[in-house]
TrEMBL record:
Coiled-coil stretches: none
Protein name (Swiss-Prot/TrEMBL): Thioredoxin-like
Listed SUPFAM superfamilies: Thioredoxin-like
Claim: Ribosomal protein is one of the keywords in the record: no
Keywords: Signal
Signal peptide start and end residues: 1-19
């Protein structure tokens, strides 16, 4: 019973940074708030580098601070393999459209820094070599240049 409670608790609180689900909404919000968009392509239940990226960078305090400081909007295009982890049909369709446009080679993880119009400013293929602080500082530098 204790294990079940712990698992439920961790599942509820493990995703502390909220990801937008609509690219159009993310672009609209980014334009209104003068923010950048971080678009991440991941395989959350099968891609070990994707899991490490989320744990070590996306869920870090440095990265979360960029979101709370209105520097960026985080959008995750997830492609899980397990049936129990499948997103809704609407989200699957949107993720497929995003992959067609921004990730035609199917790289995982692939992280893109975009402006509010969807133009690519920076690309990270695979697990970034930077730690969360350097990764976040690089994004902040792009934000300050615009």
């Amino acid at each position: 019973m204790k294990t079940i409670f712990t698992a439920i608790f961790l599942a509820l609180f493990s995703v502390s940074i909220s990801a937008q689900n609509s690219f159009d909404m993310a672009k609209k919000n980014a334009a209104e708030k003068n923010e950048l968009i971080v678009l991440n392509f991941s395989g959350s239940d099968w891609c070990i580098p994707c899991i490490k990226l989320h744990k070590n960078i996306i869920e870090s305090e440095d990265f979360k601070k960029l979101s709370t400081d209105n520097v960026l909007i985080y959008l995750n295009a997830d492609f899980p393999r397990s049936k129990k982890n499948q997103p809704s049909a609407e989200i699957k369709k949107e993720n497929a459209l995003l992959a067609d446009k921004y990730n035609p080679n199917g790289l995982f993880p692939l992280t893109l820094l975009l402006n509010c119009e969807g133009k690519i400013l920076k690309t990270w293929e695979g697990l970034p070599s930077e730690n969360s602080k350097n990764f976040s500082e690089e994004i902040l530098a792009f934000y300050q240049k615009k």
